[in-house]
Design brief:
Elements: H1 3-21, E1 26-27, E2 38-39, E3 59-61, H2 66-78, E4 86-89, E5 105-108, E6 116-119, E7 130-134, H3 139-147, E8 151-153, H4 164-168, H5 177-180, E9 187-194, E10 199-202, H6 208-214, E11 222-233, E12 237-245, H7 248-259, E13 267-273, H8 276-281, E14 297-298, E15 301-302, E16 305-314, H9 322-331, E17 340-346, H10 347-351, H11 353-363, E18 374-379, H12 383-393, E19 403-409, E20 429-435, H13 446-465, E21 469-470, H14 478-485, H15 489-499
Helix pairs in contact: 1-2
This protein binds flavin-adenine dinucleotide (FAD).
Length: 520
């Protein structure tokens, strides 16, 4: 071992011993090397958006460079006494403690210098527009920077205050996914620190096994410190359309019609309108005056409605009349009479629409509350049964939060990545369903929350038996994970053995156990 390497290891050993044995708040390197920036105020790292799971780590690392992360992981993977685990934390918008590390170390990725470098096609040797962006940066930061170059990523999430590394670890889906695939289908290259502390630049042609492992890999194989993401010309404006339905079959048929027109349509989503609250919550960002007053009770039965939203990009540089496009597309839809609304908004406001919803919920004290969310991929053949199952298990009148439903196309997913879709290979169309429930702690105390979580378990259990898969999966037993990955389990476990053999990374996912060097 070289002297510098030895010093670095000795240094981190002292740090870790001090960290786990003393109540100090901030530990400076005693050996004059770059100090690792450890903190022991671990409150934020023990919590996430879900507000359901709370695991306190022993310390937080605020890294200044990938080298800091590498130093920590090299030490832990070489140390025979240690059983310390490590979780990267992006924006902490997980639901079930996925970015937490009980008694371990949480690496706060937002501490890394935010670097966003945009490269435009045609400049120098560049043959496709792309951006190099740090793993801890937020998608909103990337949007703001790329728009300065009139460029933008092709595939998004609905909410942009999520980190690049956090969404690339799970997939990253929104209404553009039918056209461009999830965010993980739009990555050209990654810089990763593996569980063994190796710093690797990987791509489909270079260290490709690591590249595909990490994409959708639930943080199990390495920590993404930088990503190279495809960009396209950004439109200035968006024509944003919403249409209402009272019949689920027509709703899903029209959604499938829309995704069959990728040359005309740029975004397709949809949601169930369960009650007045769900109708109103979705109009916060959509600046149209709706003259839709649905009857949620009819003939003694409760009734729900459905809303499709689609969007068409408006580029001033392209000679396309977007009003005509919207008219042509909308003419083919079979929504309720006169229940189709079109607005025009800036591209930035369209992509950042959930922020307005967040602000409104924050001001009502309804953002920092428990969120027993459930997200599933359901094959097209099972979507109507799944919607029935959902509606049987929730009380539509009282439900708070959106229930999203929209189709994506299986062939836009790269099967080499770690993410799994339902197996029903004959269904090219797969629906993503997100039951994004908020609970009000006054009306839903702890036992009520537990009941909701039990309901989620019933729904995911029954749906999984019928071939659905959880998105952003959460399983509390090894058997659950085994069944989630199904025929992909051996590949997933093999990748773990290759890149994080001691099971140091992302313990909050609860997939693998930590092992020490001596037990391996
Ligand atoms: P964290 O919660 O910090 O981490 C999530 C997981 O990724 C953890 O296991 C963590 O260890 C790991 N991780 C974090 N950073 C890295 C890294 N740099 N390298 C390796 N592993 C890392 N998802 C969608 O697909 N579409 C949506 O439209 C969407 N909308 C959402 C809206 C809201 C309001 C919320 C709260 C969530 C939404 N999500 C959506 C889910 C979200 O994409 C995931 O929960 C995502 O993982 C959150 O990113 P984060 O940066 O907060 O990750």
């Amino acid at each position: 071992m070289e002297i510098a390497q030895f010093c670095a290891r000795a240094n981190i050993l002292v740090l870790l011993l001090a960290l786990f044995c003393s109540p100090c708040k901030f530990i400076q390197s005693p050996m004059g090397l770059d100090p690792l920036n450890f903190h022991q105020n671990t409150n934020t790292a023990s919590m996430d958006f879900g507000r359901i799971h709370f695991s306190f780590p022993s310390a937080i690392l605020r890294p200044k460079s990938p080298a800091d992360i590498s130093l920590l992981l090299s030490f832990l993977s070489g140390s025979s006494f240690s059983e310390v685990t490590v979780a990267a934390r992006g924006a902490g918008h997980s639901i079930y403690g996925q970015a937490q590390a009980l008694d371990g170390i949480v690496i706060e990725m937002d501490a890394m210098p935010s670097n966003i470098e945009v490269h435009r096609k045609g400049e120098g040797e560049v043959d496709v527009s792309y951006v190099d962006v740090s793993g801890g940066a937020l998608w909103i930061e990337l949007l703001e920077e790329s728009l300065k170059h009139r460029l933008a990523p092709r595939s998004w999430t609905d909410y942009l205050y999520l980190s690049i590394g956090g969404t690339l670890s799970i997939g990253g889906i929104s209404g553009q996914a039918f056209k461009y695939g999830p965010q993980i289908s739009n990555v050209l290259q990654l810089d990763v620190v593996t569980g063994k502390g190796e710093v690797v630049t990987c791509s489909p042609t270079k260290s490709s096994e690591l590249f595909y492992s990490v994409l959708g890999g639930l943080g199990q194989f390495g920590i993404i410190t930088s990503a190279r993401i495809l960009l396209q010309e950004a439109p200035e404006k968006v024509k944003w359309v919403r249409a209402f339905y009272d019949d689920v079959q027509t709703f899903t048929q029209d959604q499938e019609l829309l995704i069959s027109m990728p040359n005309l349509v740029d975004y397709v989503e949809g949601f169930i309108v369960l009650n007045d609250q769900s109708l109103n919550s979705f109009t916060t960002a959509f600046p149209a005056h709706l003259h839709f007053a649905p009857e949620f009770h009819s003939e003694g039965r409760s009734k729900v409605y459905y809303c499709i939203e689609y969007a068409v990009h408006d580029h001033s540089s392209k000679d396309i009349n977007t009003d005509q496009v919207v008219e042509e597309v909308s003419r083919q839809m079979r929504n309720l009479p006169s229940q189709l609304y079109t607005v025009e908004v800036s591209y930035y406001d369209f992509l950042n629409r959930v922020r307005m919803e967040e602000m409104s919920l924050r001001s009502a004290g309804l953002w920092e509350v428990p969120h027993p969310w459930l997200n599933m991929f359901v094959p097209k053949s099972g979507i109507s049964e799944f919607i029935d199952l959902l509606l049987e298990n929730i009380s539509a009148e009282e439900f708070e939060g959106p229930v999203l439903i929209y189709p994506v196309l299986r062939d836009k997913w790269d099967r080499n990545t770690s993410m799994v879709l339902p197996d029903a290979a004959d269904d090219q169309v797969v629906y993503i369903v997100g039951m994004l429930r908020s609970t009000n702690q006054d009306s839903c105390p702890a036992d009520c929350l537990q009941n909701l979580l039990q309901t989620n378990l019933r729904i995911t259990g029954a749906a999984s038996d019928a071939g659905a898969k959880q998105y952003i999966p959460h399983h509390s037993s090894p058997a659950g994970w085994f069944s989630h990955f199904g025929r992909h389990w051996n590949r997933f476990a093999g990748r773990k053995a290759q890149f994080d053999p001691l099971g140091i990374l992302a313990p909050g996912q609860g997939i693998f156990s930590r092992r020490s060097v001596s037990s391996s």
